[in-house]
Q: What sequence folds into this?
């Protein structure tokens, strides 16, 4: 396992254990500091949207951000995670429209060799018109992935192509671009919506 993968695994395990063992810890208690507060996750990147326009991390200053890294040829994990993420966001938006207007969901490919900007844009639009799909050169994608401690690499060959191995995390980042929490896409849209309502103010 590579160093980024080890860091992600340790971070996720530590947060999970903390919440299981001590509900009173500040990382888990309502109204307390966010679980990822103070961690070094996120940072500058330059990518491309479906129209070929340059998109930078700083373009979203002042907005909350949901960030998920995946790829459009993913057979199951990415469509499942992104589907839950955006259904959860839609539920949150239905209950808190004004707050949701200050949130930008992002899908960033980890397979730029196949995921053209146009293809990533189509993939994102299939889930929500509010989800922004981003691609770029291999170097640009790698810079973004490293900033968010995302593990990825080419996986097994399959008929017609190959799969990608990657970490599965939906990050919630605050208006200053600082990490807040990992959205629980494995627990369904209602839990995602509740987590957004808890932090996004």
A:
């Amino acid at each position: 396992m590579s160093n980024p993968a080890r860091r992600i695994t340790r971070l996720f395990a530590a947060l999970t254990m903390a919440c299981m063992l001590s509900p009173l810890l500040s990382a888990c208690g309502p109204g307390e500091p966010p679980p990822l507060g103070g961690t070094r996750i996120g940072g500058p990147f330059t990518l491309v949207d479906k129209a070929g326009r340059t998109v930078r991390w700083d373009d979203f200053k002042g907005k909350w951000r949901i960030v998920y890294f995946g790829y459009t040829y993913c057979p199951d994990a990415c469509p499942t995670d992104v589907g839950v993420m955006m259904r959860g966001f839609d539920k949150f938006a239905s209950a808190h429209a004004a707050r949701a207007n200050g949130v930008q969901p992002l899908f960033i490919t980890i397979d730029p060799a196949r995921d053209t900007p146009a293809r990533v844009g189509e993939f994102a639009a299939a889930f929500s018109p509010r989800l922004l799909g981003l691609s770029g050169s291999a170097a640009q994608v790698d810079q973004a992935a490293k900033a968010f401690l995302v593990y990825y690499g080419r996986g097994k060959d399959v008929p017609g192509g190959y799969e990608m191995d990657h970490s599965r995390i939906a990050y919630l980042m605050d208006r200053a671009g600082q990490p807040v929490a990992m959205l629980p896409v494995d627990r369904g849209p209602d839990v995602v919506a509740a987590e957004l309502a808890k932090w996004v103010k």
